[in-house]
Amino acid sequence: MIALERLIRDVPDFPRSGIIFKDITPLLADAAGLAETIDRLVAPFAGTGVEVICAAESRGFIFGTAAAVKMGVGFVPIRKPGKLPGETISTEYDLEYGTDKLEMHVDALRPGHRVLMIDDLLATGGTMAACCRMVNQLGAKIVGVGFVIELCFLNGREQLAGYDVRSLIKVE
């Protein structure tokens, strides 16, 4: 088993002073590490009847599409406003300074669809909670939420109470 933590680079003071950014690009560049990451992301959800994976742009797309291929299921993108060509639903969520918005196609999921949510990083949980709200609004069932990295000290897991949340790397 590969120690995935070794493939994550800490970048101090990015994007601003006092932040230690978790850079996944070394992980993405390592074929064995990337393959193991995808295997470990989907393993807890094998046998749960996942029919589709949803992920938000942009880094969620990297892991979400690979996980969808691994599981043999479809992928639904969740995007910033104005990026999807069809009719969309949207939700706003809070940022540290202000709000942001995400959208997905209204016909992307059907009621009862079994969905696995994937993203690279769980920080405050706001982005994933917003994604989950839209999936629920369409009547789909979230079977789990998977992350590569969880910044535990930001308590983002609290925003996802009630879901089966898994993370591969936990930063205390």
Which properties best describe this structure?
alpha/beta, 5-stranded parallel sheet, 24% helix, 9 strands, 172 residues
Could you explain the architecture of this structure?
There is one protein chain. By secondary structure, this protein is an alpha/beta fold. Helices cover 24% and strands 35% of the residues. It contains 4 helices and 9 strands. The protein has a 5-stranded parallel beta sheet with strand order 4-3-7-8-9, with helices on both faces. A two-stranded antiparallel sheet has the order 1-2. The two termini are 22 Å apart. The mean pLDDT is 96.
Summarize the structure.
The protein has 172 residues and is of the alpha/beta class. It has helices at 25-29, 31-42, 59-71, 126-137, and strands spanning 9-12, 20-23, 52-56, 74-78, 88-95, 98-105, 114-122, 141-151, 165-171. It is globular and about 40 Å long.
